[in-house]
Specification:
homotetramer; flavin adenine dinucleotide binding (chains A, B, C, D); 4-stranded antiparallel beta sheet; Butyryl-CoA Dehydrogenase, subunit A, domain 3; alpha+beta; Butyryl-Coa Dehydrogenase, subunit A, domain 1; FAD (chains A, B, C, D); flavoprotein (chains A, B, C, D); Butyryl-CoA Dehydrogenase, subunit A, domain 2; AcylCoA_DH/oxidase_NM_dom_sf (chains A, B, C, D); oxidoreductase (chains A, B, C, D)
Chain lengths: 454, 454, 454, 454
């Protein structure tokens, strides 16, 4: 592209031409604002923010990072806040951005490392939790938990996955949620609960079985709000991903042992747990995907710098003059472009037909993007040599993070099967069309009195 | 997608949402017209058109197919004619369609087999040749050759590739083109000249060396118009591709032996050959790509029908219930979607920045799409068993045709290197940005008096 | 390898060291004899043998090629005859070679094109048919059909696959074989019957259903000997693979219409058809695999010559100096070596444990080798440009032939599933071992009074 | 394989048949002894050994693990000690095992986790260092450092890679090694020095430039023995690999600042550094490869257990009944078998032709095996879900370790290029053979008076 539109200079993507006219003036302005904020505030602060995470195990999970609070204040002032929450679906608290518009912003955030999303209050799992509370929370629940979340004053956890349980099939979940008088009593053994051990996470949304004998399998579950300091909430340990503990949030093993909360902490109603988690998933997957594309683009940028670095010459040649480096870079470029277009197309599909009408597109993005990004990162790591695997570059940590995305919200296989099955549903119509066509073709042969070649 | 827009029902692609608003009313109407024509006229005629190619070697290359003439007449009447020729670039003869609009139509044509493009007078190599004559031809040349080509009365050949020469580097070309008085004398040994042995091909555009000692390597070549019946034009044999002779056009070995044409047959001027072939390539590659996507989409549709066919059950199960078939189909779907978006994005880029400003996008499409389509076809062939490799299905022939696209207009490697090199040009700016950023990051660490983690 | 053992100079493989000591003196001598014969007699004759296949459709399938008869006479004289028939299993007619020894010879044959196998009377489907007759034929059947086959005087066909039937599940087969008095009456519609239209093929082994209601699904089938000139044997057309008809043998559509043969033509007994075809498959697959490796090795050799050819330089560089060619060649080399070792290992496994005890190894070879060889060929074709896809090189025809091997004797998926299922059978033992180990590990922790890290 | 030979029951590999007869009785006995030791002593102790690594950063790098000393004593008693050191090359201290025999043992060790190799005193980098000292060390050097290493009393480091230097081209190395009177003074900045921060590592072999202006680039380097407690040896920090610090050994950044050692600490002689590191590499790569295969085999075993675990059922099905799991397992099996055979073949090649005569085979193994093993691990991790990426399974840590092998001892690209270039050297001979053959083929055509098909 001769002269990239300034707004996407960050990623130099040609897909901008396809979507530019779908941005409102507010969308464009916000994107420009965000890019400016990320470049001039967030990126310069990433090293400091990393350094402000204590290495001491005593304090590692208990510290607020001053630089982050400063960034959050600046972002709020710029109007860059809760961008994920679509006004179309959440009129009261939402921001007037489409899924497509926010998707582009998610790439910008993803390319800027972990703190960017938090700086604009768009971090998982808070985003999904805020959507749940905004859509399904009672006024009291919203006042107590949604508002501080929207303000970035607290953080939250979503407790679904269970240890010793194949919980990618959510009907397998065993945590017990039962009413006892005016209280709800919760007992269960969860893990991989992101942020649960972070001192700032004040509220857990816990999915459990309230009606295990209901013959409708998807009406057995309920979601309950559990304040983090409720007696019986036992934070066991952070799970590691590869060798990373992902402080300051972490992914935690948590045991809920006879945890008691008031009846009012039930979300939406008994047996509505499944309905809630279903609504929570679609757009979030797109955000994950676009952040991943930002990560991949960033890795490619690093790789390009490395292979052209004169101090890295070996045997008298630049790294890019060796082996298959140039071809590797070309493949990275092509794979990133193709994947980005798939996600943007899915985001637009959601805008047009809601998440339900975009299931195939979401599923495609969900299984294509993480693998694509992992491949790009792997090539970049290879270009960096051992340093690329170490704490001195961000690549290996990013790889670990992306690797979880081939499992989170369902392993690849689930989405692949879903797309395949959806395609198979076209069989009947296709076969009917083919049969009708063959008849016409044969009729024409007969009419012209010509014999088909064998 | 819940309800596909009728206009793209043929391909049920979600990318339509991304581009719909870039179509003019004329573009949409023409697309709908074309889809209707293809479904109701072209597809029913494919078997007949195939049957009308004689198998007898004596007549195989000499026959006009009546059904094709009928289709051409119908297409012309519907206004579906020369759709490839953009009015923006060729005001006199062109059609007011953008590259993007025609790209979608090219997919429709590609999915309908060989005769569809010819029926609407959009077949290679005529398309490129008409562009050359429309842009660079003298009025006399246009009157004599362009008009009958535009009318679909004759066909043409483009003679560039040479036997015994590594002609993917066009400076290697050896055919001699020299002036002798008022005549041009041509001597050379070409091959893979598509259509040259087809009786309907009346004119060859021949690239040769007119000034082999010119120190500017790209000013040594000229293009000359050679009527097919000029003495000395020797049609040697059709080259086969995986055993196919691709009648009725074929790809020919041709020897030009002391061929003499008037001086007026020179195109544009002495030494301008390279300039002409450069202008000829960009959009044509996009058309090839979109036709390939039509082929891939078609193969997927066939595969879906096969694996759901109850008469193909083995061991009590449908084919789709075995092995990795469902996953294969999902990957086909995802790969087609991603590739289509890449090509559409490149087409739009051409519309916005001309072919020169879309070189990276064109190159990406050029190396991604054929390999993608071959993979889809290979999976489809596997689903069909041996029948999938035979004359009873169109898959193997389509595979052979697509396989040539990894070589035509430059092998994959050329385009891959081009994209990689273009990416490397970003190195300087990226490195400067990184260095500036690192300074800011370190300044901030110092300002806060925090030490970075090792 | 510094100095390759002369005996494997043809393939320069390092795997020779692994197997050399498993060759008997006779095996080594025969291999040397065969390599000499192939290099000095077969390879010089390949072009002539190809030229002796008439292109005229009238005579194409009816001609014996004199050069082939000459080669066969020479081979017989040298003792290079029926090498596939193991004396261990067929004491009367067999040759004292192991499967491993013959496997190496099959690679030599495969690398020398189609005529090599025929020259030493080791062509499919005759090889399998001779094994059937040698093992299961009555003395009369052997005298009438086996002896002329062993002498290379006639050829044969094996009629199993059926049109309109998913016959990769052989229980689906519909051809009817029923007794009527002293005759057997056969009615059925077969295709892909290799050699059936070759004038030299005098005998068909036809698999059909003789007892369709037998509740044992694998006792419903019988095999009958049908002389090719029996009334009712209708040779319909040759099936093409890609665009090749594979003359002079071809793969034929054949209809058996009220074909009557004497009762004596039943092989082995009523309902024994499945048993016969089971015994026919194992070693044959290994031979196919080794021939494929010969083809791949040959393609790599051609590729190496092409990319170092000074007349193929582009932009001032050898082809191997462009793009990823050197890496492509390295991958070809590595893939060929790995695949060859897998097949040799399977061959040895058969020698040690019979085909039944080598099922996993055979299945691995069966799905790994053809795909490997296709990848090698594809890279070679790419190096040759369009010429690589044409009749001027052997690559595309070899590709088409190898592509059928991903389907013949069961599609890849069947063998992949078989290996996967076999692996799963190890689950019980592995799980028991793991559980026992965990107990020991925990006991040791307790004994040392140490707590495991979380 | 029906009944696996007990000696390879651990890996149930069919390659045993290929190599069994190349084992001496001592080799077989030692292998059986090793397998017994690993199963009954090492594997039960792995959890304890892991628990004995302190998590406290103060003590983490300073602790000897009692269980390991116990295992070492048991191994020594069983005669399972220094198995890597071939008597053929090191008559004084070596063990009478071939490379092939030890390769199989390396797989056994690799499959049993980190401590197995150490338990039998076969850990890198000690193995390579002992080989250097045994081959090139002076009697005094051997007495002081080799003997305690051979006895497993101390450990060692090999300091080659440098920070800020593209040290995969060893001529780039900058560490200065210069003589000053009777001393050698060393100044340099190394990193990725495995074990350098481990309290047990008493001696560093440091590669530096002693003669930077020598016009022979490979005579500029020397190797010096530096006791770990020499003043000026500064242990900076452990490098992490995917978040792992790989305690208790670790990979360290080390600065040598005016480190002074006696002249006697020079190894072999001035300018012989390159010669030494060259001799150090070949067999070591094979050991790495076989250990990797052990890791891959182990991962496959774990995967098989997981996908058949009834407690992991989702949607009513075992994991292996979903998606492409069975096919994934089959591919793992096939890839492991093929890779193992390649390494065994390379090991045998070393035995026959020394490392120099096996360079191609070693290079192939070096680039094929780690990628293969990473693919197997990746599939296994995917089967285990998030748990597979965590500290509760060994898979992610193994992945990180294997990932370094695509870079250690030269990145993949180096070995790929080496193999490709070696193949290209066959071009001349192949081309001559082809030309000779073509002449013969044409002569035969002429003799028979037949025209070749075009």
């Amino acid at each position: 592209m001769s002269t990239p539109h300034p707004i996407v200079a960050l990623t130099s993507s040609s897909s901008w031409a396809l979507i530019e006219d779908k941005f409102t003036p507010f969308g464009k302005e916000t994107l420009a604002n965000l890019i400016d904020f990320v470049q001039n505030e967030v990126l310069p602060a990433t090293k400091l923010a990393h350094a402000q995470i204590p290495t001491n195990p005593e304090t590692r999970w208990k510290t607020e990072r001053p630089i982050l609070e400063e960034l959050k204040a600046k972002a709020k002032k710029r109007g860059l806040w809760n961008l994920f929450l679509s006004k179309a679906h959440y009129p009261e608290h939402g921001v007037p951005l489409t899924n497509l518009e926010y998707a582009v912003m998610a790439e910008v955030l993803g390319g800027a490392g972990h703190i960017a999303s938090e700086a604009v209050n768009c971090s998982a799992p808070d985003t999904g939790n805020m959507e749940v509370l905004a859509r399904y929370g009672s006024p009291a629940q919203q006042k107590k938990w949604l508002l501080p979340l929207l303000n970035g004053e607290i953080r939250s956890a979503f407790a679904m996955t269970e240890r010793f349980v194949a919980s990618s099939d959510a009907t397998n979940i065993r945590t017990s949620v039962r009413r006892e008088g005016n209280e709800i009593v919760i007992n269960g053994h969860k893990w991989w609960i992101s942020g649960a051990g972070d001192a700032r996470a004040k509220i857990h949304l816990v999915l459990g079985k309230s009606d295990p004998n209901n013959e409708k399998k998807y009406h057995q579950q309920s979601i309950v709000l559990v304040p983090a300091d409720t007696p019986g909430v036992k934070i066991i340990r952070p799970m590691h991903v590869f060798g990373y503990d992902d402080a300051p949030e972490g992914h935690w093993e948590v045991i809920y042992e006879n945890v008691r909360v008031p009846l009012d902490n039930l979300v939406l109603g008994w047996g509505r747990g499944f309905e809630i988690i279903q609504g929570r998933l679609g757009p979030g997957r797109i955000h994950h995907c676009m952040r991943s594309i930002g990560v991949a683009q960033n890795a490619l940028n690093l790789m390009i710098q490395r292979v052209t670095d004169p101090s890295r010459k070996t045997f008298g040649k630049y790294l890019f003059e060796h082996g298959t480096v140039v071809a590797d870079i070309a493949h990275c470029r092509a794979e990133i472009e193709g994947a980005r277009l798939l996600v943007l197309s899915a985001a637009l599909q959601i805008d047009k037909y809601k998440a339900k009408g975009a299931m195939k597109e979401i599923a495609i993005a969900k299984f294509v993007v993480p693998t694509m990004a992992l491949n790009v990162l792997d090539r970049a790591m290879q270009a960096f040599g051992a340093e690329g695997l170490s704490q001195d570059q961000e690549l290996a940590a990013a790889y670990a993070g992306l690797r979880t995305l081939r499992l989170a919200d369902g392993p690849d296989a689930v989405h692949i099967q879903q797309v395949g099955q959806k395609e198979l549903r076209r069989a009947k119509e296709l076969t009917e069309q083919s049969n009708a066509l063959k008849k016409k073709q044969n009729a024409l042969l007969q009419k012209w009195n010509v014999k088909a070649h064998l």
